[in-house]
Amino acid sequence: MMIRSATVTRDSRETQITATLDLDKSGDVSVATGLPFLDHMLGAWACHGGFGLQLRARGDLDVDPHHLVEDCGIVLGRVIAAALAECGPIRRAGFYSFPMDGSLANVAIDLCGRPNLVWNVPLIGRCLGDLDPFLLKDFFKSLCDNLRATVHVNVPYGDNDHHMLEAIFKAFGRSLQQAVQPVDGDVMSTKGVIDG
């Protein structure tokens, strides 16, 4: 079986981030961003996706967490794309509905080569540690743009921001796990190619 792993580094004046991802090696997860809630979410994503993930990030948190959160999305999108670059045909799409106490998150993904994010999440907006929960939409937008994926995130109801966001990350891990499964035959497209 082809090894589906990659390492991506982004180094800017605002952030320094390195991520190594293995799509087929579960249980090997270590995340340190300086934002404990973001670490928790990325760890939940990797765990429920069955992915190996090592991510180290430093940024100008003294200014605002926005740069770091957004750039982590950029790097994660790029490292997923790099891990898939030479792997051949995959299932391409996935969907998962994940319950978290009084919250429910539905996440659908299409690795179609066309970036788009639909985000219907009724966040309350109370800070989670040092993190404004509204920044997670920017994280997913950056991820979609750099993975060139269409992702729909819908939370029909939720009891608090922590549970809604954790359900989203877990559902995203499960739906991506479905989408990256190898398939026999041709590319999963009536056009015969994935836009890119």
Element order: H for helix, E for strand: EEEHEHEEEHEH
Number of helical regions: 4
Q: Gap between N and C termini, in Å?
A: 25 Å
Strands of the largest sheet, in order across it? Answer: 1-2-4-3
Average residue-wise pLDDT: 93
CATH architect. name: 2-Layer Sandwich
Do you know the CATH topology?
A: Ribosomal Protein S5, domain 2
Number of strands: 8
Structural class: alpha/beta
Query: Share of helix among residues?
Result: 25-40%
Radius of gyration: 16 Å
In the CATH hierarchy, what is the class? Alpha Beta
What percent strand?
A: 25-35%
Tally the structural domains.
Answer: 1
Uncertain segments: none
The biggest beta sheet is recorded as: 4 strands, mixed
What is the general shape? globular
> What is the H level of CATH, i.e. the homologous superfamily?
Imidazole glycerol phosphate dehydratase, domain 1
Descriptive account of the structure:
The structure is a single chain. This protein is of the alpha/beta class and 196 residues long. The protein has one domain (5-179): Ribosomal Protein S5, domain 2 (2-Layer Sandwich). Helices cover 33% and strands 29% of the residues. The strands form 2 sheets. Strands 1-2-4-3 form a 4-stranded mixed sheet, with helices on one face. A 4-stranded mixed sheet has the order 5-6-8-7. Helix 1 packs parallel to helix 4 (161-179). The chain is globular and about 50 Å long.
